[in-house]
Amino acid sequence: MTRQKNNQDKLIKSFKERVKELNCLYQVEEQLRDTESDLDKTLEKIIKIMPSGWQYPEICRVRILLNDKVIQLPDFTENLWHQTAEIKTSEAQYGKITVSYIQEPCDKKDGYFLKGETKLLNTISDRIAQFIWSKELKQKITQRNDNGLQESRESKNEWKPIIELFKKSEKNLYINISQKMLYYLCWKGVESAKQLLEKITIDQKFEGEDITEELNRPLKKEALAKIMTISDDIFDIAANHLSKNIIMSSIQKWIAEDRFRFLVRAIDDSKSSLSEIIDALTRYHHLDSEGVMTPPAIEKGLRVSLIRRFFFDQLEFINITKQYTEVNDYYDIVQRIISPADSHGKLGGKSAGLFLAAKIIEKETQFPELKENIKIPKTWYISTDGIISFLRYNNLENIYEQKYKETDEIYYDYPNIIQIFKNSYFPPEILKGLSMALDDFGDKPIIVRSSSLLEDRLGSAFSGKYKSLFLANQGTKQQRLDALFDAISEVYASIFAPDPIEYRKERGLLDFQEEMGILLQEVVGNKIGKYYFPSFAGVAFSNNEFRWSTRIQREDGLARLVPGLGTRAVDRMVNDYPVLISPGNPDYRINLTPDEIAHYSPKMIDVINLESNRFDSVEIKELLKNIGNDIPGIENMVSILQDNLFTTATSILGIDFDKNNLIVTFEGLLNKTPFIIQMKHLLTVLKEKMNTPVDIEFAHDGKDFYLLQCRPQSFSKEISPALIPKDIPENKIIFSAHRYISNGHVPDITHIVYVNPDTYNDISDLSELKSIGRTVGRLNKLLPKRQFILMGPGRWGSRGDIKLGVNVTYADINNTAMLIEIARKKGNYIPDLSFGTHFFQDLVESSIRYLPLYPDDEKVVFNERFFLSSENILNQILPECSLLEKVIHVIDVPKTNEGMILRILMNADLEEAIGFLSEPSTGTTIYSSDEKEAVKKPADDFWLWRMHMVKKIASSLDPKRFGVKGLYVFGSTKNATAGPASDIDLLIHFKGSDKQKEALQHWLEGWSLTLAEQNYLRTGYQTDGLLDVHFVTDEDIKNKTSYASKIGAVTDAAMPLSSAEHI
Amino acid sequence: MSQYNPFETAQAQFDKVAEMLNLAVATRKLLRNTAREFHFNIPVAMDNGEVDVFRGFRVLHNDARGPGKGGIRFHPQETIDTVRALAMWMTWKCAVVDIPLGGGKGGVICDPHNLSPREQERLCRGWVRQMAKHVGPLSDVPAPDVMTSAQHMLWMLDEYETIHGAKYPGFITGKPIGMGGSLGRTEATGYGVVFVIREALKDMDIRPEDTTASVQGFGNVAQYAIQLYTQMGGKVIAVSCWDQPDSKAYTYKKNEGVNLDELLPITDHFGSINKDKARELGYEQLPAEAWIEQDVDILIPAALENEINQESIQKVKPRVKIIAEGANGPTTIEADEIIQKQGIFMIPDFLANAGGVTCSYFEQVQSNMNYYWEKDDVLGRLDNKMTSAFIAVYDLAKKKKLYMRDAAYVIAIDRVASACKNRGWV
User: Which of A73, A406, A980, B4 falls 20 to 30 Å from A798 in CA-CA distance?
Assistant: First the structure.
């Protein structure tokens, strides 16, 4: 007990120290931000700030030595108790900085200086060095420009003095330019330069022979040093072979590129840690804000590397993201990254999706209003390896084995894991970062979201498997931190929850080392009374998979709106409903009569209670009475229902919160504001630019619209409507349905698990109700996969109220071929469909079909006798569950029906579905079609075939006959991303006559048509021609205009084909 | 497999009473069928620029006693036989409470889910354009029905008045207050139930303050019935209602009498009582069917159809003297026979819950005068109407020894038949 207490005290003490250090660093940073300010004055301020970061500020003094300058307070003395750091960059040494105590500190148990203090000193000295460096650089640039101007007036191309200047003052740059010049000369075919190059490389090889591999670096240095010795020769050769103009412009270009070399190195080096990259980006940002232009090729390369480093190396994602992001965009992010020391982590899927969406919106031109009207809440990130360092720090690494355990065991262990995690400590770097984050957030509530590497990648939405938690973020800093620690531990623990593990197992992702990033996001909203909440929030989908009107197209999308926090729109609710709108067609509503509208309107609102520090659900009716007047935009959210007529107030003055019968309809929002049009535009833009239907979360504080999340919407491929035979004998029909039918068919069902709605409803014992869900889960493991269906009352998997439907999670039903919810009429109760929730997406993603049955509808068959009187084999499969026989019926269809199976056909166009007994399908490939959907087949060989044909074209093309200087391929064929309908992009470097060009075009046309025909035969895709040919001339290549820029481009360069060598 | 036909069912019911009344062949012929029917096209310009054509109906079953009265339904599976049956039912319903209106019904085959509000407005106006010559405050008066609401009525009224170039608020009912609607509409049905219970008790010579009751349902009808009954001195000791979270009903019991003032604040818009709060207030939470087993004088089923059936009727305590059907069709045929045998006094649905249609009539009367009564005025007149209606049915039942349900039918059909005869139609 006491030991624990001691540990705790120690932790708190060290934590306090960290906070002190951070504050100090902040203040120093504040001084260094302004590079315009006077150096001496800035440093004078810094020596006064710095002692506050050390243990004994009263006796702590600082001295900065800078070349011949000394900056210190009068009473500074360098005593035994001091520490020193050098002020230097990789380019230059500027001086040193010393922290000294003017008398011996009394408590020296931990040494005179803490580890953190040493680090702090180093950080500050680095920052000062950077500050001086950028000041000097600026000066040089201005000088250079001035010189340049002078020269241009006198003799235009006097480059020699510049080179001389570099040779003396900036050796590295000088070597670099010399080397580049040498390569350039060689590339231009200058013989003397080639000899020079050969000379130094031969030397290198010769020396390299008895040197071991590890010594690569010094070897390189030597080679570079050699360049120094021959540099004069290089420039002499240059002067002889190149025009002054070219030399001057090349040198200028290289100087520019050199300035960004540090960033390229940091990012491209897989060994550099996140913090090194962050440093480099910060430096870049300073350069950039000083107006130093980045050469475009470098910028492009950096973009791609950064995407790879921070997010995914998925080609699809990179291709899209690079179009919408700039290097500087990352600067904003890195300011808010929390990562372990030497982190190599990324930020995870959720962060990636939101970042990309934000950038797409920023650059949107078709609907410029989006850029103005959509905001992103303040966000901090914990890198994905945060969890690993957390586990390592607490000796918990072996917890990763958890995922290989049996599902039952995983269930059993999970609560314990949460407890263990909550009682663990965070590594100091993360602790420090979180503390900074909290300072940044202030006392605004925050949400802790998971952002895993598996989640939200293009092509798969690993949706909602991990936790998201709200924090009121109230109280003292320590209290707020504790709450944050708790929340993060819990989110970390959710990696080991049964559901995600099961999901990953199914997708073959189990062996993937799951790393989880965390997003800390400010909760959008207003403080009203004791509550904090957005006026309204919700989710929206590009594709509407739940069309309640024939007038609504799939592409019209779907939005689920709720007042308050969006949790009620994301999750499935019991006894409450979000307002559903199709943004492309907002006029068609699910509910029509005033009664219906009122019934299916939101009744509860999720808020953060700032007094109790809790997430709360409260009744809207009550909330409106008390604080309705203070909710921004409330007049657009509610309608007044009186005398069977809805009216919407034009302003808040028209609402009497005490007397009016107020119903949340969002009628004003839809009719009086551009909200829904903007939503439609947003969905359209994101879908188009991300090249996939998306799923977004949003919130609105009454003033602004905030995008909270954006990820691909999981969707099943369009399934064609099944033909429904009309000659099925009546006695073979088990059920039929006419409402909410989707397209498709479920063949050859051998087993039915039927939960009897009547007997289920009669169960009064909660544990018995729960055991039904568990038994279904066990049957799910035992019955043949995708050959059985689950049928039962109400809403399966409702979170919260078990009475409404069988209590299952996705893990309990993941093997079924179909989930059928039976809605027996009970008063005016019609079951909410499992839609728009995480559960539904699971069904869609796993190709588990869903069908609602309304047995009490007219003209519907529901053969209850079949379910109740067929032999129940539950007893045989799970003898220990035989007590539940009255509720759960397990039917072996072929066994009780002379070998017949159950077949289900669904046709959405006819709004008809039917389940009937039939002979089994012939052949063996019974379930393959479904299985294929679940595991997406990798991209076909479309590109390979195209590449093959392109090579064939290249080899048979006679360059002399057609005046072709070079032939290149680019685009999807080169990138191996071609689909069945992709064309082949060819680039022809042409240097012939018009006649030749015409002949060449004819010749290629022939190929194009032949290839199109071949492609049609292979894939069924019809095109007018398969070749897309672009001509470029020498001049284009010289000026890098149009497609010529593809040749030799840094990213996505066109690939030369062999015929080019024929010339 | 012969399909269920609602009109044939309604005709069979009529035939049975016609036999009892020994109506003339011509009268039977006249009343077995609808007086006139309109089937017409309604072209509607849709939002997408195309034109869609909808099928509309208006059926008048009989207007011997006054202008036709009946709702307009928007329904994708609307059939003419449903509309016919409902029009006939309206004739009897108006006649039993002796209001001077005939029976009608109308509809459009459409699914409003597929119609934008603007398209629905054009559909409503289109309906009126087709029917403007044949409907009106003095000939046939529409009202809201399935999937139509006050908004639709206002569109229709506006079109009608535009065509006729004058104000005719009496053309349609179901309008909001201030737009030609009547006060007291919310209370009407519930109060009506209690007015007839009061009259029944009077005839049994029982003072209301000496009685107790149990109510099924806690919606609009039940709430106002409980209110008025309690005001009269009676004591409701049990009320059952639907519990949305549990998707089942419960009965809440309090022996000292349920208190509306404490229940209403914990009840939602749809009559679901918060069970936890009810228990806190000292209500006993019992299974759904407990309401019928209470040892009370009066049962008021005011929720669903077929709640009093062969099974549940066995649980009714001997003390029960009156069953007043606040809901439509709460008693199954089998249970009805048992009730009849046991001699429990039955106030049948179309008498007991006629407060609603009576108030609609009042709305039309006020609209025609363009003068609107105070609420007390409306409810006072409602009391008079319901009381007279009850006395007429009760007298007939007593004199002719008829079961109340049969007496109500007999009196309704007899009134209509007489009107036809007096007019010289048959």
Answer: A406
